[in-house]
Amino acid sequence: MNIAPLTAPLPDSYGRLLTYLRVSVTDRCDMRCIYCMSEDMTFLPKAEILSLDELGRLCASFIRHGVRRLRVTGGEPLVRRDVMDFFREMGGWLNRPDQQAGLDELTLTTNASRLAEFADGLRACGVRRVNVSLDSLDPDRFRRITRRGNLARTLDGIRAARQAGLDIRINTVAMAGVNADEFDTLIAWCGEIGADLCLIETMPMGETGEDRTDHYLPLSDVRRDLQQRWTLEPLTYRTGGPARYARIAETGRRIGFITPMTHNFCESCNRVRLSCTGRLYTCLGHEGSTDLRAPLRAGADDVQMMDHVRAAILRKPRGHDFLIGRNADDPARVTRHMSVTGG
Ligand code: SAM
Ligand code: SF4
């Protein structure tokens, strides 16, 4: 059992307390989604990637300093060998006594290709909620978007997660001319399977071999259009992430909107991201990051590590500055891929 007193929490220079950590456990993936990776993606050399022990040690330090929610992501987290050992270790931080450092929630974001294999194990580690990325229910379209995904496999994974009793949120990247005609189908399907749906605006991150300016779709327009056919009742419900929710009266399920491009969601941002190489990113929309791997591998103790973290958090910017289409030849305003930082 992990017992640790809560050490001083981590405020940034705007007074936002850091309570939410997203950790990318790998940059590798069995898909190549058009908005996320290039077709011939070069992955990082293994030596650059933190071991699961190293990741566990860093995450434990964050938890001791007030992080209450941990989301495991990637790349595809479930393709990392022995990733369940990591979930087991992090699960040990759940349900700690009051006043002790610990997690309120352990979650993951996955493409579900291997969820059928791991759903029961994740539940046993204390996971109660998963975000599953799914941009289309049409097998051919799904294949085109993911470049190598198999819709049937992803649906098997979703089924297994439901059977294991996990709450599911489907994440759909909204793309003009790609899947914009499917939102009604996705809303109805999520109603049938008892899942929430979250629509995400395409963010200009990393080269993918696709021009995202062609596909950019403001969710304010999508919402207006959906409201012609569905009754959207705004909700105050939050999951700690950037999504804003409404309930769809006709299905009883929630719909979320993540709108980094049309809405500035930074004021209440309590998140930082730890990449699989041990870089700490305090803002998804900025290049700035802090290397934690070098001090970790040089033998820094926890106090020294947290000095690095504290300094990084004080540099967390007030907000991001994504702007798609400012320069059509170079839509990637942030050069790193989402799969390195973790979406
Ligand atoms: N492989 C897992 C998955 O797809 O769910 C986890 C990692 S993936 C990078 C996390 C999330 O980032 C996914 O929901 C994906 O749709 C989203 N994502 C990736 N690139 C994006 C982009 N350029 N704009 C918006 N969302 C993106
Ligand atoms: Fe892989 Fe997820 Fe990126 Fe798709 S969005 S390529 S599934 S990491």
UniProtKB/TrEMBL annotation:
It holds the Pfam family Mob_synth_C. PROSITE patterns: MOAA_NIFB_PQQE, RADICAL_SAM. Monomer and homodimer. [4Fe-4S] cluster 2 binds at residues 266, 269, 283. It comes from Komagataeibacter europaeus (Gluconacetobacter europaeus). Keywords: 4Fe-4S, GTP-binding, Iron, Iron-sulfur, Lyase, Metal-binding, Molybdenum cofactor biosynthesis, Nucleotide-binding, S-adenosyl-L-methionine. GO terms for molecular function: 4 iron, 4 sulfur cluster binding; cyclic pyranopterin monophosphate synthase activity; GTP 3',8'-cyclase activity; GTP binding; metal ion binding; S-adenosyl-L-methionine binding. GTP binds at residues 22, 71, 109, 271-273. GO terms for biological process: Mo-molybdopterin cofactor biosynthetic process. The gene is moaA11. Binds 2 [4Fe-4S] clusters. Binds 1 [4Fe-4S] cluster coordinated with 3 cysteines and an exchangeable S-adenosyl-L-methionine and 1 [4Fe-4S] cluster coordinated with 3 cysteines and the GTP-derived substrate. This is GTP 3',8-cyclase. It catalyses: GTP + AH2 + S-adenosyl-L-methionine = (8S)-3',8-cyclo-7,8-dihydroguanosine 5'-triphosphate + 5'-deoxyadenosine + L-methionine + A + H(+). [4Fe-4S] cluster 1 binds at residues 29, 33, 36.
